[in-house]
Structure formats: C-alpha cells, structure tokens
C-alpha cells in the first residue's frame, strides 16, 4: 500500500502488476468503523503494468508515490506515480524483493545478493543502467555497448578519440528484448545482439539512431548471457546460464545466420572466449570444469581438454591476442596462466591468488603484457604478465561508484585504453603512464588538489609536470 493509504499494488503470476485506487483518505482513516472495509469496497482498478516475462514477486511504494517491482525474469522496474517506467535495473538472478529506504532502493535476489541503488538515479535516462558487456572491431576503432535498459538499445561508439563518441544505436525487433550481450564483426560493420528468449539478432552498418535487425535466429533456451564472435568473423558462440547446451552459429553471411551445431557441456556457463586464431574456444562452466573446445572445424567441435577450476565463484577465462596464452579463474580462487599451444595438453606456467570478490572478466591488454581482472569489489586488478612464468602486480584501478564491474576490454588501437562496463556507466582508464602525465600537464600548470584527487586517488601530490 502507498504511504498515503490510497494506492494498492500487487504483483501477479500473470506477469503483471495490478493497481487500485481507494477513495478519500487512508484506507482505515475515516468513515464507517475505521476498519477501512468501506474504502476497500470502493477501490477503483487502474490499468495494469505489463511487459514482464515472468512472475512479479514483490512490490513497494516510496513516499513520492514511486513503485518498485521485482520479477522472476531477473529484472527490477521502478515506475513513476503515473505508471511510466523510470528505470529498469538488472538482478543477478531471480529478483525476490524490493524495499525503499531514505536514500536507496534495496533489491534482493534468490542467490542471496542484496544491492543498494541510489534513489537520485532512479529517474535517470536508460543509459544509467547496467552496461554488462562491451565488444569492438578488430582494430578497436569502434565498439558496441550492451546496455540493459528500459529502451533496450545497444550503443555503437567511436573510440578513436579521447572520449567515446556515439555513432548509432541498434534496437531489438518487435516483441523481443535484448539480454545485454553483444558482439561486433572484425570490420565493425555487423553487430550481434543476444536476446532474452535465447536467440540472437543481427544488425548491419550504417548504424542510425534506431537501426533494426536484418536477421534473427533462435539458438538456446533461457536468457543469452553472452554471444562471443570468433576473430575470423565466421562463428558465434551462444549460451545461457540455465542451459548446458552451447550453440555455434555460422555467420559467414551475417544476413543468413544458421546453427552449425549444439555442444553439450557438463554444466551451464556464463562466459566463453575464442582464441585469436579461432581454433579454440575456452568455456568456464558453473561446475568444477573449464572446457577447452577444438573449433578448428566449427561444424565438428571436439573437447580437447577439461581443466579443473573448482566450484564456488564466478568462473572466467581469457585468451591472449598474439600468443597461445590462456588465463583462467574459478571456484578455487586461483588465477592460472596456461600455454595452450597444444589444446589437448595445456601446460600451467604460473598461478596466483585471485583478487577479492567474484571475478567477472579475465582479459589481456592489446599487447598481451597485462592481464585485466574485473571483480565484484568495484576494482580492476592489473597484473604484469610480460613474463607469463612470473606474473607481478601492476596496478589496482580505483573503486568505481558502483560495486559491480562486468566486462573489461582494450578499447583503443594503441592498447592503452581500457573500457569496463559497470552499473550506470562505462568506465575508461588510460593505462599508459606517459600518456597520463602528458594529458595531465597539457595545460602547462600543476594539477589542482581537486584534479589530483580525481585522477590520482589515494596518492600524495608531487611535482608531476616538472
């Protein structure tokens, strides 16, 4: 019930939120015997709120009349008093509860995760929601951002300049919804978007303000959590976190995608990545194993090896760009570096303890000298792996304003720029110290205290520009 006692909301198993308006004041505040029965009898039904893909498990009002609802489709929506969607927030799994506090919206999910969302952001544009994945062309001069938002679009950006510049948007076809996953062809002229119903959609350049799909293909069951593209541009790997089947899709002709084969896995997965030559696909599963598939013939993939990485944490893995180097992180809370020049017999080169929190993404810098680990602590840990047998800490990129970091990716041709999707933003870091100093001192004067704190947090100021 709303704080003024006049509004009632109920989540339903019919994939809607039902609303009623009571006459007069608070339901039990006046008239009759004070029980509110007369007011309830006069309740007027309002238009129901639709667009949900599963049960609506919980609803809550705040003092301003905003309504939050949590659904089994792993979404939380916030509506204004007129029933318009203010924002849509992602849940890590089935959303089981929502509550307003004085400063935050509190959301609960079935995996036990509780998250706080600042109330000041609830009326923001859809771009303030989760950027769960990024993708780029082979030369990293353009990229596509997967945005989980009410408008459900992916943004195509040019990353050649100092600040990413939007060049277009792709939007899902009728009666479909993006899942937040995306991939881009090596030449940057094709975008592949995963769908909430287990399919993929294809978009081709030129990208306008509302580019529509040129093709669609159903692939798996459940929500597509990722759909990485092989570097040769011929094969998509499509999978959900609820199905143990991984689909390999032929996109040699992007306008005519076709399922090559379905690969049964021992457990579902949330991430997979092709090697730079497209001949291997590493698949860290939600079980104890990381599977290496030989995809030299993508129509007939075979399991080359199974690595035991443990259960109990978000698994991840990433291939180097220019060498047979593989990094894995799993439930044993250990990051390992492997030589996979022979995929059937990986050789462990080194290992080290994983950073705190869940490791969501493992990736190499463009020159392969750095290993990038994004985590649930809101930090990016950077490891020097120029000598893979002797990995050394290189940097910890300061915590963002949000607790979860998703996919990290080199975002510039030179490799010094790192883009990371987060809750509410795409964070970009310049990893080249010389470039940082050059940019910071370009004005010819020392940095102010505010500038120093913004660019070099937790570091004592010194004469940087002399």
UniProtKB/TrEMBL annotation:
Pfam families the UniProt entry points to: WD40
InterPro entries: WD40/YVTN_repeat-like_dom_sf (IPR015943), WD40_repeat_dom_sf (IPR036322), WD40_rpt (IPR001680)
Each WD repeat, start to end: 325-348
Gene3D superfamilies hit by this protein: YVTN repeat-like/Quinoprotein amine dehydrogenase
Bias type Basic and acidic residues, positions: 166-177
SMART domains in UniProt: WD40 (SM00320)
Region named Disordered: 159-182
Biological processes annotated in GO: transcription initiation at RNA polymerase II promoter
Domain of life: Bacteria
Keyword annotations: WD repeat
PANTHER family (alphabetical): CANNONBALL-RELATED (PTHR19879:SF1), TRANSCRIPTION INITIATION FACTOR TFIID (PTHR19879)
Protein name according to UniProt: WD40 repeat domain-containing protein
């Amino acid at each position: 019930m709303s704080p003024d006692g006049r509004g009632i909301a109920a989540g339903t198993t019919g994939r809607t939120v039902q609303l009623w308006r009571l006459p007069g004041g608070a339901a039990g505040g006046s008239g009759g015997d004070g029980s509110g029965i007369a007011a309830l009898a006069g309740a007027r039904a309002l238009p129901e709120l639709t667009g949900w893909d599963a049960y609506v498990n919980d609803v809550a009002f705040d003092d301003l009349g905003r309504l939050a609802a949590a659904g089994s489709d792993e979404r939380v929506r916030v509506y204004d008093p007129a029933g318009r969607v203010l924002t849509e927030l992602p849940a890590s799994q089935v959303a089981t509860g929502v509550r307003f506090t004085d400063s935050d919206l509190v959301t609960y999910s079935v995996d036990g995760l509780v998250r706080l969302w600042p109330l000041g952001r609830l009326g923001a544009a859809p771009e303030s929601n989760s950027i769960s994945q990024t993708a780029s062309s082979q030369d990293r001069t353009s990229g596509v951002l997967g945005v989980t938002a009410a408008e459900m679009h992916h943004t195509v950006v040019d990353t050649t300049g100092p600040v990413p510049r939007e060049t277009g948007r792709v939007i899902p076809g009728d009666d479909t919804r993006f899942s937040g996953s995306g991939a881009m062809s090596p030449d940057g002229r094709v975008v592949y978007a995963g769908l909430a119903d287990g399919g993929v959609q294809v978009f081709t350049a030129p990208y306008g303000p509302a580019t529509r799909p040129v093709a669609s293909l159903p692939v798996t069951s459940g929500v597509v959590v990722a759909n990485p593209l092989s570097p040769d541009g011929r094969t998509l790997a499509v999978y959900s976190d609820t199905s143990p089947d991984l689909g390999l899709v032929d996109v040699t002709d992007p306008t005519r995608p076709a399922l090559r084969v379905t690969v049964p896995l021992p457990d579902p997965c949330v991430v997979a990545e092709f090697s730079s030559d497209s001949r291997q696909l590493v698949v860290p599963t939600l079980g104890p194993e990381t599977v290496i598939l030989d995809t030299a013939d993508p129509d007939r993939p075979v399991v080359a090896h199974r690595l035991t990485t443990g259960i109990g944490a978000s698994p991840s893995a990433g291939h180097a760009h220019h060498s047979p180097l593989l990094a894995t992180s799993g439930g044993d809370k250990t990051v390992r570096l492997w030589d996979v020049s022979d995929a059937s017999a990986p050789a462990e080169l080194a290992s080290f303890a994983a950073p705190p929190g869940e490791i969501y993404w493992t990736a190499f810098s463009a020159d392969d000298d750095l290993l990038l680990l994004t985590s649930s602590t809101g930090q990016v840990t950077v490891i020097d792996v120029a000598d893979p047998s002797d990995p050394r800490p290189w940097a910890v990129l300061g915590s963002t304003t949000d607790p979860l970091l998703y996919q990290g990716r080199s975002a510039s041709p030179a490799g010094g720029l790192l883009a990371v999707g987060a809750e509410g933003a795409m964070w970009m870091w310049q990893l080249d110290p010389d470039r940082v100093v050059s940019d910071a001192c370009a004005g010819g004067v020392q940095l102010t205290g505010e500038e120093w704190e913004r660019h070099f947090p937790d570091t004592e100021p010194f004469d940087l520009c002399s």
